[in-house]
Amino acid sequence: MNSQSSALQLSNLEQRQLVTPVVVQAVILCVMMIAFALGLPAPIESRLTNAGIALAGIVYTLFHYYILLPNFSTNRIVWWLVALINSAAIGLLLWLDPIQPWAFAFFLALLTTSGSVILTGRWPTYVFAVIISIAQWVLARPLFPWIDYVPLQYLVFPLAAAVITETAMLTRRSIARQVNRLELLSRVTGSLVSSLEIQEVIELVCNAIQQAMKADTYYVGLFRPPDSLYMALLYDEGEFFPKTTVSISNTLAGHVVRTAKPLHLNDVPREHQKLNLPLFIVGKPRTSLSWMGAPLISGGTVLGIIAVASYERNAFTKEDMDLLINLSNQAAMAIDNANHHEEVERRSRLDSLTGCLNHGVFIKALDEKIQECLKKNQPISVIMLDIDLFKKYNDMHGHLVGDQVLVMITETIRRHIKSTDLVGRWGGEEFVIALPNATGEEAVRVARRLQKSVGQIYLTDRSGTVISAPTISQGIAMCPLEASDAYSLIDLADQRLYRAKARGRNQVEPQENYWEEQLVSLPEQAHIRQP
To answer: Is residue 531 situated within a structural domain?
Structure first.
């Protein structure tokens, strides 16, 4: 961070707070000079001249503080202009050669140096120091006439100015860094509070680490009991690695998760031995030399870890560790909120009793599956399923038994379909099943298996008496042969469901031979759905 970037990172209020002690000291020095000048046993003209110079110094200092500083610009031209004005003011003081203690000009020049480095940065201040040093030499006005060694007389001020400048710049950089980190944490916190997606939370954490730390490696891991970590983000030396799951048994990350405490190592090869842990490498096959990890904790539960590493020793400071801890605290709350939001969203999409997709969500998901299959020139079939005479279970055995029937049929359906298939609850005892990449004939085979398995369901009432297993009627329709949108496809399957019921229930409509005739007009399918 150079001086110019530092100046850009400090507001006018912060600059004014930093320069206030310098202004106060300069005013006090000028007041002392006035008192000294008026008390000199010298002609009145000399005394007034000295007092006037000191008074001008007070006016000039207050002008800077109250007029120039509140409107101080970050424009570099203004910085150089201020440095030149300060040089002219101190140079004029040396040229007039007033009757004064040697320390007056020296301390006034040093105070000006302090104020200059705060306001304008390093290089304008060095220009000021060089001009004053040249003025000393040209005007033969050594600030320390009592020093016998002449070259030393003209070196004291530039050396002192250099010490002040570099010390102030270190302080300025430290303050600017802390201000920037606080601003960064504030921005990230604001974004995290409004974030309801875990991936968005992770991306915000990634951006914050990139802006605030010089880390070669960093990762965000989500804890998966008992000892696994899902690496939701892993960056190492300019490369993002694929998401993966790793074991954290006997690792630094595992130590942080297990103890729920942050860990900071400045020399990993040496310090990890004190923890009695072997080195475990993620990312590129290279050992990090500095490492920090902070647990993601929310509500007393460890959700994971944020870790950063460097291939240099002593790469991170205590301030870096504090920032990582604050960042992990905010990220943990955001991840917890996102998890809750995701769970609420998931439940809102599902039927509360059976866990099937609800009516509206199923329609939307089916439409997406249809579009996907049409693009791939693949079929998709729908089965409308109704429990025959379901009302008798509620009337004869109570609604709890009726609910049990619904749940057990849902479980049976799930056992006979793929994870990529869809199942939704259409009405009270009606279900709808979508089979992407399946022909009508293949859907009939699925329906037959469901018919058989449902007939084998074992049911008892509250007294333990065995109840007859339910039967189901099913209607099937196929896209794109018979319909090309979700509503038309479901409507056709629903019509066939009622024809199946009209045929005596516990039927599948249409029969297998119907699809054998219809498929003659279809392009040859490039796949066969496995039973």
So the answer is: no
Task: Name residue 422's beta-bridge partners.
Answer: 434
Output the domain CATH number for residue 403: 3.30.70.270
- DSSP secondary-structure letter at 487? H
Average pLDDT over residues 454-477: 90
Higher pLDDT, 344 or 382: 382
Dist CA 94 CA 115 (whole Å)? 19
| Same-domain check for residues 323 and 430 | no
> What mean pLDDT is predicted for residues 347-362?
87
Contact 384, 430 (CB under 8 A): yes
* Mean pLDDT along residues 109-137: 82
Residue 265 β-bridge partners: 291
pLDDT, tens digit, 9 for 90 and up, residues 74-101: 566 777 777 787 777 777 776 665 555 5
pLDDT digits (tens, 9 = 90+) for 300-310: 999 999 999 99
Task: Give pLDDT, residue 231.
Answer: 92
Distance CA 142, CA 158 (A): 12
pTM of the model: 0.57
The answer as to whether 94 is a domain residue is: yes
Q: What is the DSSP string of 243-296?
A: PEEEE-TTSHHHHHHHHT--EEESSHHHHGGGGT------SSS---SEEEEEEE
Indicate the pLDDT class of residue 161, thresholds 50, 70 and 90: confident
Cα separation of 179 and 189, whole Å? 15
One domain for residues 439 and 490:
yes
| Residues 389 and 410: beta-carbon distance below 8 Å | no
Please list the alpha-helical segments (H only) found in 64-149. Answer: 76-96, 102-120, 122-139
Question: Is 160 within 8 Å of 129 (Cβ atoms)?
Answer: no
Please state the rounded mean pLDDT for residues 455-473. Answer: 88
Question: What gap in Å lies between CA 332 and CA 222, rounded to an integer?
Answer: 10
Close Cβ partners of 144 (under 8 Å, ≥ 6 residues apart): 102, 106, 152, 153, 156
- Assign 527 a pLDDT band (cuts: 50, 70, 90): very low
Domain that includes residue 32, residue range: 3-180
Spatial contact of 288 and 310, defined as CB atoms under 8 Å apart: yes
CB 474 within 8 A of CB 445: no
CB 95 within 8 A of CB 89: no
Q: Which is nearest to 351 in space by CA: 280, 427, 277? A: 427
Residue type, 404: Q
Give the model's pLDDT for residue 97: 55
In 3-state terms the chain splits into helix, strand, coil percentages (rounded to 5) of: 60, 15, 25
